Amino acid sequence: MSTNTAPSTPPSTANNAQAKIPNRTLLVVNGPNLNLLGKREPEIYGHTTLEDIEANLKQKAAAHDVRLIFVQSNHEGELVERIQHYGLLAEPEQLVDAVIINPAAFTHTSVALRDALAATKKPFIEVHLSNIHQREPFRQHSYFSDLAVGVICGCGHLGYEMALDYWLTHLYTV
Ligand code: DQA
Q: Does the CB atom of residue 120 touch ligand 1 within 6 A?
């Protein structure tokens, strides 16, 4: 996975200097129990809270004029509905351009969440704090990885920043 931090470059407007380049928006989705980060098995998931992760991402994205929408839920149906909304059903100006998602335990169980993402056709990066391939066998299958643009796992909270770096570099080509 690229960690290139080159600033996001809007497409050239050389042929149309007045062209309005829309700001870009990313949806950052976190699944069940990730609200407990910092308290939850810190030897596996680290000491950084979800609030800290979101604040870091927000600061970095703002410097590139990219807007972030954060969703965390412990409920599969709610995650499905939020993904449907921001990916497909909202007014065009409220739709996101791409997604960063840590589906947490739903990684290994949720066809519904996979189908919701697929329905939006929004490109996404799958993130896991832990290296799921070093863990129990049931964590080694993901319902998302074959649809993802990329998968980052085992890099702790930095994985989210790596995913954001990717989108800051590639957002204007999606
Ligand atoms: C996780 C890995 C999943 O297996 C687990 O259920 C989680 C978190 C991670 O970020 O490492 O809740 O997605």
A: no
Q: What are the DSSP calls for 103-172, one per residue?
A: -GGGGGT-HHHHHHHHHHT--EEEEESS-GGGS-GGGS--SSTTTSSEEEESSTTHHHHHHHHHHHHHGG
Q: Is 102 close to ligand 1, i.e. is its CB under 6 Å away? A: yes
**Ligand 1 center to residue 136 CA distance, Å?**
11
pLDDT in tens, 94-149: 999 999 999 999 999 999 999 999 999 999 999 999 999 999 999 999 999 999 99
Of the residues 86, 128, 157, 160, only one is catalytic, namely 128
Q: What pTM, to 2 d.p., does this model score?
A: 0.90
CA-to-CA distance for 94 and 66, rounded, in angstroms?
13
Q: Are the C-beta atoms of residues 79 and 31 closer than 8 Å to each other?
A: yes
**128 catalytic residue (yes or no):** yes
Select from 139, 153, 155, 157 the residue to mutate for testing ligand 1; criterion: most ligand atoms less than 8 Å from CB. Answer: 139
Smallest CA separation from ligand 1 atom 1, residue: 104
39-83 tens-digit pLDDT: 999 999 999 999 999 999 999 999 999 999 999 999 999 999 999
